[in-house]
Every structure is written in C-alpha cells, then in structure tokens.
Amino acid sequence: xxxxxxxxxxxxxxxxxxxxxxxxxxxxxxxxxxxxxxxxxxxxxxxxxxxxxxxxxxxxxxxxxxxxxxxxxxxxxxxxxxxxxxxxxxxxxxxxxxxxxxxxxxxxxxxxxxxxxxxxxxxxxxxxxxxxxxxxxxxxxxxxxxxxxxxxxxxxxxxxxxxxxxxxxxxxxxxxxxxxxxxxxxxxxxxxxxxxxxxxxxxxxxxxxxxxxxxxxxxxx
Amino acid sequence: xxxxxxxxxxxxxxxxxxxxxxxxxxxxxxxxxxxxxxxxxxxxxxxxxxxxxxxxxxxxxxxxxxxxxxxxxxxxxxxxxxxxxxxxxxxxxxxxxxxxxxxxxxxxxxxxxxxxxxxxxxxxxxxxxxxxxxxxxxxxxxxxxxxxxxxxxxxxxxxxxxxxxxxxxxxxxxxxxxxxxxxxxxxxxxxxxxxxxxxxxxxxxxxxxxxxxxxxxxxxxxxxxxxxxxxxxxxxxxxxxxxxxxxxxxxxx
Lengths: 221, 253
Fold this sequence. Notes:
The structure holds 2 protein chains of 2 kinds.
Chain A: H1 4-45, H2 49-64, H3 67-77, H4 87-112, H5 116-124, H6 129-159, H7 171-182, H8 185-213
Helix pairs in contact in A: 1-2, 1-4, 1-6, 1-7, 2-4, 3-4, 4-6, 5-6, 6-8, 7-8
Chain B: E1 3-14, E2 17-28, E3 32-36, H1 43-50, E4 58-63, E5 66-67, H2 76-79, E6 82-85, H3 97-107, H4 113-126, H5 143-156, E7 161-165, H6 173-188, E8 193-196, H7 200-206, E9 209-214, E10 217-222, H8 224-229, H9 234-247
Helix pairs in contact in B: 3-4, 3-5, 4-5, 5-6
C-alpha cells in the first residue's frame, strides 16, 4: 500500500522524531502556560503600571514577529551573548516564549469572563488579593480558556516542524531526509501529514478529557 | 450599648459625582438596622463601606474600636468578622455547596478540612439546606437555595455582624419567604444585622432601627414605628406612599 512500506522501513527513526516533536510541543506548552498565568495576573491585577506595560509589550512583540524569526534569533543570536543552546533547548525556549504570549491572551479572555462579583465574594470573606485571584478567579478563568488552550497545544505540535530549521531531528526534519534519500517524496509527505493529523487528533482528544474532568455544571454558558 | 459598626461622615464619588454624601450612623450590638430607600440612592455603596469593599473617599469607618480607614489598619483582617450577603448571592461558581461554605474556614481561618466540613454542615443545616444539595453546584440550585447557602457561607465564619445587600431583590416572589424566614431566625438568635432591603414588611417586623436614605443622604432615622408609620420628612413620606401602594396597604396618614 502506498506509504505503508516507507513507514515500515523507517518506523524507528520516525518514532524518535515524533518523540522530539511531542517533547517540543508539550514542554513549550507547559512552560508557556506557567509564564502566561503569571503574565495574565500581572497584566490584569498589578497595581503598578510598569509591570502591566512590560507584559503588554512582551505579548505584542511575540505575537507580532514570525515564530521562525524568534527561533533563529534565540538559536543563532544567543551564543554572541555567551549562551549556547542545543537545537532542542533553543526550540523549547523559543516556542515557550511565543506560546506564553498567545496563552496569556486566552487566559486574559477567560479571566474577563469571570464575573467581578466572584472576586468581591472572596475578598469579603477576608481573603487577600492574591488568594482571591489564585483560588477563585484563576480556576474559573482556566476552565473558560481550556478550549483555546487545547487549540494552542495542537498548533504547537504542528509548528514544532519549524524546529527542523535549527537542525532538530523532529518529524519534518527526518521526513525530508528520508524523502530526499529515497526520492519517494509523495509517499513520505503523505505519511508525514497523516502522522500530524492522527497525533494532533489524539492530543485534542486528550485535552477534551481534561475539560470533562474539570467540568462544572453551569459555569460555561 | 456597644457599637459594632460606626461610619462617620463618609463620602463616595464615582466619576466626580457624589453617591454617598456625608452619612454618619452607628449600629449597636444585637441590633437589626434596616436601610431603606429608592434604587440608586447609595444604600449598597454605603453598606459596602462597612466592610471596606468600597473605600470611602472621605470620612471614617469603625469596626468596634478599630478605625478601618486608618492608614495603619489592614481592613482584610476584619472582614472575617463582618459577614456580607449579596443581592446576586455570588456563590463561588466552581465549587459545590459544601465547598463554598468550607472555603473561608479553610483559607482564612486556617481550619482543617474535617473541622471546616463539620462547621459547614451545621451552618447549612441551620439555613435548611439538606444533604441532597451539598454536592450540587450553584447553578443547580434555585435562587432561594443559593441565597441561603450564601447566608450559611457568611454565618460559618462566625461573624460579629452580618450585612445584607438587598438579599431578596433578585428572587422570584415565591422564594423570598424562605430567605426572609432564615433572616428572621438569625435576628431571633441575637445576630447583629444591617439590612438593605425593599421588604417593608420585614423592616417593620424585624427591624429595631430604620434609616431612610435618598440621593446619598441619610434623610431620617428612628424606630420602625417612627420611620415607617409616621415619617417626619416629606421625602420619606413620598417614598413610603409609593411603596405601600405597591403592597396595597393604606397609610395611616
């Protein structure tokens, strides 16, 4: 069958490559999520103007420049300030920084969907500002942001192909190598597309499980 | 008589417009202080100043002997002693009924889960929220049930005074009774209460003192008999006439 033999012949390399793609996606998603949470809280709740502006500037810069440029900047420019990153490290750092900008926007939208009265109720019990945010506002905002965050994870998995340009042997890099070596471009790229679709689908499915797990009746309308 | 809450010449401005204009009043222990007045008269803003959810732009707020408006005082410390019940219940949307009531006990009072659970259960029982509802989420409850859970949440903290901000205004008429009944029980138990309400029947039967507020000013204050049935000020009279008409009750004057 078309593509099946190319898969059989190269499954070991492809599996390892898939591991890299997933690693980049999941690691940068997770780090990005932590950064985004902090950024969102600062942007919406800081009493000081400067940190709010810094976060806004960060988001605008990382949303406003191509991911490829960010990755090249981090991989090729960082040695000149004494930081040497491996292709894997550079990819995770670049994608995490990029994703944090997007995720913070999703979290901001989630946060703004939470009624202010929830905050007031927490405050009125005697909770501090930080406790009100972390144990009332964030958990609700997070649930509202989950569908967008799921999207972001799948997107990161696909964009991890960009890491091939800094020589990370992830899926796209390996597929190009195999295709060029065997001249079986059609088969290889069909198989590659199929792998992205299937794994992307599974990631989305896993995320919907998380959504179900934390589902609260009546929270999302 | 010992004062629990006192506000002194408090002012609040929104967009340069004064919504509370120099109101002073004090609430004594075991008193049921009822505040009436037209919508938008500044009643809710004033009530929220009593626990500093709204910070007055001018004037002073005292909880017992402590001046909450003093720069050295952190009002957060005193909020656990001042319960508040909101018009729209404001239960935590992502928590079950039981967790809603336990939340403050664990987070603010630092109680263990078991102890908080015990306390929450007895608070819920006291507002007649049965076991079958404890694991439900707010959206699965009727308005009356949600408001009673909100009362339990405030009550569980063992506050020294409870503030009520139009607790029945968002409820369907047939559900106001169950909430008012719980409030009457609290009053009978000696709870110090400050109640903003349009329920004149409740004000007359439960209130120990009534204040009428209009356009951000305290117009008249006295016993229910004085304020509700023989008001001295024309503004009070005009407001009550309208209200009594709504209740189909003939005024005595």
